[in-house]
Amino acid sequence: MKKGFFLLACCAVLTLVVACGDASGSKVNNPNTVKLLGASFAVPSITIKKGSTITFVDDAGDGSLHILTVGKLGIQESEAGAPDFGGLAGIRIDIGESWTSPPWNIAGTFHLTCTAHPATMDMIVIVT
Fold first, then answer.
1. 75: part of which helix (H) or strand (E)?
2. What's 114's domain CATH number?
3. What is the pLDDT of residues 42-93, one digit of tens each?
4. Structural domain of residue 110, as residue ranges?
5. 30: region left, alpha or beta (phi > 0 left; psi from -120 to 50 alpha)
6. CB–CB of 61/42 below 8 Å?
């Protein structure tokens, strides 16, 4: 009886630990974090070091569906050295979700856009 209770208690604790984790698997404590607001990036540009990633967080209180891609004015454009943002489909981030980009391994200036908000959502990434 004691073994059954102990096993049940361990399962309950494990369930709580898993439920409190980040379901998206991204690093929400990434120092290079950019909030996605209703129809804009919280910042117009970000400067990061080569090899770094960027975590995009769709604000649960002021967010909306975002589809991020490399490009400008809502149009996907290939930029040599930019990491993969889901190809032509882009990366879909729903309200309250987050996504961490692959590493930015090439120094340079890159452009990101949201195809759901083409008139208002462009951002520059400067990799040093």
1. strand 75-76
2. 2.60.40.420
3. 999 999 999 999 999 998 988 899 999 999 999 999 999 999 999 889 999 9
4. 25-127
5. beta
6. no
Which tokens in the block code for residue 93? 């981030």
Using a 10 angstrom Cβ sphere, with 0-12 exposed, 13-18 middle and 19 or more buried, the burial of residue 104 is buried
The C-alpha angle 101, 73, 76, rounded to 5 degrees, equals: 50
Q: What does the block give as tokens for 86?
A: 């889901």
* Mean local confidence (pLDDT), 100-125: 97
Distance between CA atoms of 4 and 9, rounded to whole angstroms? Answer: 9
- Counting the structural domains of the chain, the total is 1
The token duo for 106 is: 């090439």
Q: How far, in Å, CA of 58 to CA of 38, rounded?
A: 9
Strand partners, 104: 52
SS3 of 87, please?
A: helix
120 lies in some domain:
yes
Tokens for 115, please give them. 């195809």
